[in-house]
């Protein structure tokens, strides 16, 4: 996304040069160079990521109640190809590397919860987002069971294809389950937008980040910082889209927080 923006600026620069708009060409040239430097040296991604994550750096204490729900949001799936036998099956579909922090955090919270002798369920939310023939919920549940989580304490929500639907469909499960307390687990850069969407559907959950992503500020340009900028921009675009849809009346009517 950031590289696309820079490429667009370069195209504009070439057009301005072709039509001899020298003053405008200089402005676009300096803007392109400055933007490239601010991204590659980590200044822009650091600002964007800090604004997303800083409120969640310290994990909030959880007061476990009689009936608790830990909401684990899916982070995609990865197809692991069998290069020897050239076979693809359900067993070769795994969580991607950046999902394991979420899975670990949900399992840790579950063990803390049952340690207080309270009822606790993990709700795994995520459908077949990549058309691989299985769902994030099913694959993550399997991994949770492998690390010792009781399968009967795992509820799967297998229809959602994005964060908005995660919130929408999980809120219906929470309504039916009469949960006293809910905890929302996602990645550090994703938790802020997730909380906004869940509150839209009346879910007042305690947000817990599973990880924290930091930009590397350096005098030397780093390609890594372009990737971080794209991750952060994806989240901010989600906020802007939410606000625009609200203004247009395209979003489902907001539910009072705490109703779910």
UniProtKB/TrEMBL annotation:
One of its GO terms (biological process) is Gram-negative-bacterium-type cell wall biogenesis. InterPro entries: Cell_Envelope_Assoc (IPR051599), DUF218 (IPR003848), Rossmann-like_a/b/a_fold (IPR014729). Residues 69-238 form the DUF218 domain. Keywords: Membrane, Transmembrane, Transmembrane helix. GO terms for cellular component: plasma membrane. The chain crosses the membrane at residues 28-49. PANTHER family: ENVELOPE BIOGENESIS FACTOR ELYC, INNER MEMBRANE PROTEIN, PROBABLE PERMEASE. This is YdcF family protein. It comes from Moritella marina ATCC 15381. The lineage of its organism: Bacteria, Pseudomonadati, Pseudomonadota, Gammaproteobacteria, Alteromonadales.
